[in-house]
Amino acid sequence: MTPRYQELLATLRRQFPQPVSDPVHDAYFVFTILRALDQVDALKSQMPMLGGPHEPDYAQAVAARMLASGQSLEATVPQLVAQLQGMFLWGHPQSQVNVITHPSIAGIIGVLLASTYNPNLCSDESGRGFSEAEVKASSMAAALVGYDPSRAGGVFTFGGTGCLFYGLKIGLEKAVPGAMRRGVREPVVVLASEHCHYAVLNAAGWLGIGQESVVRVPTHLDNSLDVDALGKAARQALAEGKRIAAIVAMMGSTDAFGLDDLRAVRALRDLLVNEFELDYNPHIHADAVIGWAWSVFNDYDFTANPLGFRGRTVRALARAHNRLQHLRLADSIGIDFHKTGYAPYISSLFLVQNAVDFGLIARDREAMPYLYQSGTHHPGMYTLETSRSGTGPMAALASMIMLGREGFQTLLGHIVEMAEVLREGLEAHPDLTVLNGDNVGPVTLFRVYPPGVDTFTIKDRERTDAGFQRKVEEYNRLNRQVFERVHAEALAGAGVVISMTDCYRHTDHGVPIAALKSYVLSPFTSEERMRSIIEHVLTARDDVLGRNVD
Ligand SMILES: *Cc1c(COP(=O)(O)O)cnc(C)c1O
User: Fold this and answer.
1) pTM
2) What is the Å distance from ligand 1's center to 289 Cα?
3) 71, 198, 299, 419: which is deepest, by most CB within 10 A?
């Protein structure tokens, strides 16, 4: 009699891709994917979400248990598809929530291939051609941002946060040699803009630098770092005997697309090295997880404008280019393909200008006796992670190959054009203001006011007038209520999914200014859809103010 386990094993083997060519089973594999997609398709409607409004049910979720016996593939897949109920469709033209991308088919296939054949990028003994894909994707990105690909190095990691970990860690080792072995025993600082992503604080905390050692430098009204203030902060830290682990430049901040002046930051760094006779170069990390993609415009002819963007769009693209063309001046750069690269999560590349910098954080081979017995390329000797998936590089490679620079120019140009359409509409309406008017990216922060407010002067009054701060708070509440209304409508399947930020920036008197936020990334957005946002917001405001009582 066949033992029970042998029977089970025979069934289980059919639930795996076959290691040896078996076209019949391949058809079963592909068909199972197809059926899963079919089940997802049944969840689609005109709404910006799958299967209609649906809130996660955590009470039921905590009751979930693994059963004694397994289930068939056919029974398993629908249970996975069920998790897509209520999922937002980031690619839907009415979905403008945040910097979350709609991945392209090529990117998805890149992930599928890597998931199916499961490379580990730790070393090319297990990564094989996927390790090569990582080098290819890194080199393509390096050349794009203006690094010399023959000197630069790159590793894919767990997000823009991971990129910051690397940037700060390498910088720390430059400022405090031996910190990797002995820990951080000297006072160090990280200098960053007050608008830096909280991931900077997180990385500083986890790296033992300490969140309180992150100096938040004031910004100009266009949300770029005040480089004079940076100079002051740096000189003060150095005069106090502290070492600078890193200067973080924001190259496209999350809420406001703020772009720091990297050229000035770099000049300041070089000046400080001489002035204080430093025995290290304070490391400059460019947090370009959002802005990097604009590098595709480095060779765009803004005068001839061959892609035919509107005047406002060309101006916005050219202004972004003006700052982003200097990315190559940073010592390292964080790039998120899963943000502005139309790749599925997680696809983040940490690039260093000089691959030798990786040597600073490399471990001794003796510490890893079971690794690196063969192969020639072992990023695992310096990466933070041990196992690393091949999905990131494959998704990135897919985007770069399929879109090319022109495809990227088209997609980015389109989303900026859509944001400009929205801004134009907002500026033309007496009850609405754009807060990040100098903004040249795809995110628009705006506020709605009661009718009759003088929106020509309101922004300055809110920011500077001490006697007006109570009003700022009142209008914050109004905007929050409008947001909740628009959001509830969207969850009920009508209207548009936008988001909100509680603090776009502070007034001169320390009161946070809240704002409604539209983040356009979808290739499917149209002018008409952008204009409909304005109607939705105004109707919601009237409802909140009780002007539309049924
Ligand atoms: C999103 C973001 C991060 C964090 O990146 P993850 O990929 O989410 O880890 C860091 N900096 C900026 C500016 C961001 O927008």
Assistant:
1) 0.93
2) 6
3) 419
